[in-house]
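Quick one, probably user error.
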């Protein structure tokens, strides 16, 4: 059997219907080697997938290890030089995988490339963003609760950027990207100290430090139904998000800015409370905020 060009890793938690739809879209787009890593689902996901999709590998974890750790387990089972790492609530549009492969084939310095991500209603999801500096991070963290169109959030989320053009970017969202396996192995994949959130930012940050680049390719397009897994335990996910934000700050802050880390920790604690209050008031998935 020949080695595939692309393997796909889907990390799943209690959303077997979405996983099946995701697998179908990958098959339609020509991806044959698919690994599903199940984070100890309680909805019969493992049994259903093994019955309905006997040709794919299902890795059943004994407990929920988080997104990055599960993805690492899945990538380790693949054989292709390129690996698509994705959420279960993603549907890949036909031709998207080829567009991402072409981007990596055409640029040996590119480690990761992400597609255009849209909501089921066709709205653009800001899946490419900048590495946040302290000013934009602080402004986005607090102003978006009362002023979503504030300039700090617009810069960080690149809302005024031309999403119709391919370009190098700081980082792409981990809901779907294609990574060069050699680059992934060089930096050790996702940092497993991030349970949920920020593992994608951290990966792209480490790849840049290792001399690799990250790209965006809008010729590839996926639909992302945000929040089905994470909204099962919304307050736990909000806490995990803010822990990851602090972990990333500690890991990436250097020089005199490290003196600000205690202030950042207090600010994130306040933001955690505000995010929980917003979730209670609006009932909106945290990932969509």
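Nope, works fine. Designed sequence:
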């Amino acid at each position: 059997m020949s080695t595939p060009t692309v393997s796909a890793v889907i990390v799943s938690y209690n959303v077997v219907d979405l996983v099946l739809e995701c697998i179908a879209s990958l098959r339609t787009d020509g991806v044959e080697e698919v690994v599903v890593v199940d984070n100890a689902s309680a909805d019969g996901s493992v049994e259903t997938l093994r019955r309905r999709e006997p040709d794919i590998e299902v890795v059943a974890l004994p407990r929920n290890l988080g997104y990055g750790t599960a993805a690492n387990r899945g990538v380790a089972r693949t054989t292709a030089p390129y690996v698509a790492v994705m959420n279960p609530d993603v549907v890949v549009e036909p031709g998207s995988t080829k567009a991402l492969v072409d981007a990596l084939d055409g640029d040996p310095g590119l480690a990761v490339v992400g597609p255009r991500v849209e909501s089921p209603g066709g709205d653009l999801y800001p899946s490419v963003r900048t590495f946040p500096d302290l000013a934009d991070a602080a402004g986005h963290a607090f102003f978006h609760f009362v002023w979503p169109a504030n300039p700090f959030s617009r810069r960080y989320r690149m809302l005024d950027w031309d999403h119709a053009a391919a370009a190098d970017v700081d980082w792409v969202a981990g809901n779907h990207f294609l990574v060069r396996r050699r680059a992934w192995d060089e930096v050790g994949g996702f940092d497993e100290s991030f349970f949920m959130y920020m593992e994608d930012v951290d990966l792209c940050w480490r790849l840049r430090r290792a001399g690799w680049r990250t790209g965006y390719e809008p010729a590839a397009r996926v639909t992302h139904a945000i929040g089905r897994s994470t909204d099962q335990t919304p307050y736990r996910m909000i806490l995990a998000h803010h822990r990851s934000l602090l972990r990333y700050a500690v890991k990436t802050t250097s020089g005199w800015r490290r003196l600000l880390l205690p202030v950042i920790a207090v600010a994130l604690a306040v933001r955690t409370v505000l995010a929980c209050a917003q979730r209670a008031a609006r009932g909106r998935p945290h990932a969509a905020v």
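The domain at 6-131+157-232 is CATH 3.90.550.10 (Spore Coat Polysaccharide Biosynthesis Protein SpsA; Chain A).
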